[in-house]
Amino acid sequence: MTLAKMPFIDAEQLDEAYLPPAKYHALQRLTRQRERLMKSVTTRKNRIGSIIDGYLPDLRKTFSDEWSDRARAFYRQRLNPFVVVRDGKDTLEAFLLGVKARGARAESNDVYQTCLRLTEFYERSEAAGMINKEFFDDLQDEIASELRLMKADEVEVERVSGRIEELYLQLHPTDQLRTIPGVGVRTAQVFLAVIGDPHRFRSQAAFANWTGVVPGANQSAGTESKGLRMTKAGSFMMKRALYQAGEIARRYDPQLAYLYYREMVNHGKNHKQAMGAVMSHLGARILAVLREDRPYELQDIHGQPISKKEAVGLIQLEYQVTELIRQARRRRKSNEGRLTGRRTREAANQVYSIHLNHGVVP
């Protein structure tokens, strides 16, 4: 009954339910699908890396790119250090050079020396009956299986990404989003998919509340606490894309760089708190570019147009946060966390004492 009467009581506070058109809905679905696939790839990379680091420490470091075609071929076929040492360095070098890997240097010497050290270590373990040489063949089979599944996911990511780009250019043919510093190929696609029609928001404040990139507030009868953690409202994909884009944008956009600098240096905020302000302002710029469908223009803090080269120079000269300040903010956050924990324990002890005095606690 209450909801039914709301249009007659305060119609201005109601927003029309937004149902995205078919192409926007497809774009949303595909970006979520790509997100799941990329998560699967990351999970498999973490598992493979943990296995190799656990049994063959320092081996991954010997490759200039630990996930290059050359490194993956080694993981699949030459992971047994005893076999590598037995066949010799020349065989290993021929194997690695036989794998086409553009821009990757030959790591044969580093790989061979690492395998040599590992065999010296495991020979003692083998003598003690703790491990045998066939163990690494089984380990290699397990990793080869994970690599095959990971490759299948990566192929699907590329296929889905191609379809996403097609829809993105159909819905946003001018591609003005990518004129914003920090907004890349994939983050632009996520912004368009999640936002949909930019004209459906009444104001920038309404958009900020929708994204959830606003500090929380705690109100009671006589008190009001502000500046709390960011609210949990809004799309997680939107927030993460804003964070990724903001980290880059603050290095190229003087206004965002100044905002980050001011929050860190003048207001005593830590990195994540300062990034929250950057994300909020970047979100407003994204909405404006989509609404007006015009390229983004770099400006200094006084609103004057500035070139990319001038912008980078200004940021490096005026708005660099020193490592000393970063360390101080990290220590402050850590101390505040310990202080909060201590206060919580003290409050709990006081409650316990009160209960004990009244016979509530035996």
Low-pLDDT ranges = 217-226, 354-362
CATH topology (fold) name of the largest domain: Helix Hairpins
Give me the number of helical elements. 14
> What is the distance, rounded to the nearest whole angstrom, between the alpha carbons of the first and last residues?
49 Å
What does the radius of gyration come to?
28 Å
Approximately how much beta-strand content do the residues carry?
under 5%
Q: Which class of the largest domain in CATH terms?
A: Mainly Alpha
Q: Tell me, rounded to a whole number, the average pLDDT.
A: 85
Tally of individual domains: 2
Which structural category fits the helices and strands? mainly alpha
Largest sheet: 2 strands, antiparallel
- What level of helicity do the residues show? 55-70%
Shape: elongated
List the secondary-structure elements in sequence, H or E.
HHHHHHHHHEEHHHHH
- How are the strands ordered across the major sheet? 1-2
Architecture (CATH level 2) name of the largest domain: Orthogonal Bundle
Would you count the extended β strands for me?
Answer: 2
